[in-house]
Amino acid sequence: MLFRSEAKTIAMVLERSGLAHELAVIQDANRAIAFLNHSHPFESTPLPNLVLVGLPLPSIGGVAVLAELGQQRAAGHPISAVVVFSRSDDTKSRDAARVLGADAYFVKPVSAQELQSAASNLREVWGRLAGGATRGAL
Question: Which residue spans within the chain are E strands per DSSP?
């Protein structure tokens, strides 16, 4: 999961970069899937165009969220970018994220400086993917 402080820092960097956004922080996989399906209590919430998935997620896990995001995209929903943040930097984790439809994979930053760098890289990835670049840029 992304901690609220991480999410807020990323949101601040995106805002300073001129990318208007609305931030929804959901720290449980079951609630994230409800959010994506417009289930209670998210019936009137629009689908996001950028999704950050922190791994691992409590409950059923980030893999289920990635699978749901894949289904949303297959159904034609305009989710521009799916970005995974994980503590693991191994090839197996990166490959699994790619197979499940993630557009980018970042190792969770530890320091504030690493978080700022990751947020700046995220802005670049989002801008490229939202601008029509092809998927699969892990």
Answer: 50-55, 81-86, 104-107
- In the chain, DSSP finds a helix count (H) and a strand count (E) of 5, 3
Q: In what order do the strands lie in the sheet with 104-107?
A: 50-55, 81-86, 104-107
Helix, strand, or coil (residue 104): strand
pLDDT of residue 136: 35
- Amino acid identity, residue 30? N
pTM over 0.85: no
pLDDT of residue 39: 92
DSSP 24: -
Whole-angstrom distance, CA of residue 45 vs CA of residue 2:
20
Tracing tokens 């609220």 back to the chain, one arrives at: 4
Q: Is the dihedral of CA 97, 11, 57, 77 positive or negative?
A: negative
Answer whether residue 3 shows pLDDT above 50.
yes
* Backbone conformation region of residue 45, classed left if phi is above 0, alpha if psi is from -120 to 50, else beta: beta
Please, which pLDDT band fits residue 43 given cuts at 50, 70 and 90?
Answer: very high
